[in-house]
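fwd from M.: "can u put these together and see what the complex looks like"

so here's what she sent:
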Amino acid sequence: MSGSADGANGADGIRGIAAGLAAHGVAAIALTWVDNAGLTRVKGVPVGRLGHAVTHGVGASPTFDAFLVDDSTLVTRYAGGPVGDLRLRPDLGRLTRLHAQPGWAWAPADRRTLAGPPHPQDARAFLRRQVRRLARRGLRCLAGFEIEWMVSPAGRDGFTAACSGPAYGMTRIVELSDYLRDIVVALTRQRVDVLQIHPEYAPGQFEVSVAAEDPVGAADTSVLVRETVRAVSARHGLRASFAPKVVAGGVGNGGHLHLSLHGDGGNLMSAGAGPCGLTSRGEAFVAGILRHLPALMALGAPSVASYLRLVPSHWAGVYACWGLENREAALRMITGPAGEPDAANIEVKCFDLAANPYLALGGVLAAALEALETLEALETLETQEGPERLEGLDVSGGAPRSAGGPCTLPEPVAGDPASLSPDELARRGVRRLPVCLAEAVRAFEADDVLRAALGDGLHDTIAAVRRGEIELFDGVEPAEIVEQVRWRY
Ligand code: GLU
Ligand code: MG
């Protein structure tokens, strides 16, 4: 069972839902949230406790906010330590029977304080706030995460590809035919709208992409897809890794994020007068993301291992630029096939699946909102003062027009930026994204837009967790880092 419980959240309604689950053999419900290190954590409750969980929540320690990827813990200014409690409230709108885990259901949890309101460190609440900010402007984002993983036989810690067929080869689908079918069946029964499943470039690597949905739904879906792939893998004697880098030196797993912006008139990323058909608001949306991308890397590429994946010319988008259908630009503009304007979207390629999807998506929306608000302010000024008053106004942030402004994009880049000379890159204002987590954290700590959107507590905790991970892997060789995180994500 899956679907909305709207209008049925009273005690009787919830009892009915629990009885329905039990009738389908469900014994327990997994309530998940994603921590600041990007790991999905869980508390399970028997199905008979669903009503209590909805009304009172399930206790969870605030220490989880300061967990690192290896389960060691920090005590930071705003998080960690043994004292306190918060409550996990299952979102009944997303309650789903898990097809590959008979007897189990799943629901993403909102984390509330004991008094009831959202906990200030709750990533799902942070994302929801950004969605509301868009809604107040009459705007709506649709989003979807691509999920890449590599699969190896279970029971060993080293990685051996579970199939031998070539990149994108039909051979791989033949070799792992039942496994891949079971993934599609499980996801479909769980009402995940699968668009594609295919073998990826690296040995033993596959990808699932899903339809775009509202941002909170998209982040929930990225959790559900991964846990479903993991569960189906286990049933087939296999083990799935979603780590940014699974084999040192190879191509990594990305967690590309697709986004489009919609208003009353439809998709604002097509049929506009701007570059690649963007409308002015569509352009501002992308410009805001581009402007904050170095800082956003601390949310979207949040692990030390992330930077082992971020190698030029590996389709990971390591240059802060955008380009039409350019798979080496951090932001790939997709216009879609002729006659399908709704397909237009922007793909953030530099993100991976170590990211907490709620934080990564919320951060991207906060960045985009800054540019949308600037555009709105300029438009208001123009209406009030007339366009001639704007002529002397510096909206470029000091950069030449070709390098873009606070709500306009620079020239798109065609081709691999790695093939451009340093002079040409400088002329176009194209910089390499952070090359290590420390560089991303510095940009993140200096970013007041992200700080204001996250709130001081969450912003500080994320930075502390990143610094904790940097320290954890200080002096550790890349191959050893890959070994240590391979099965954590
Ligand atoms: N696996 C690549 C990455 O690390 C992406 C391949 C693709 O473009 O789908 O992001
Ligand atoms: Mg891919």
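replying to her w this: Confidence is low (pLDDT under 50) at residues 1-6, 396-400.
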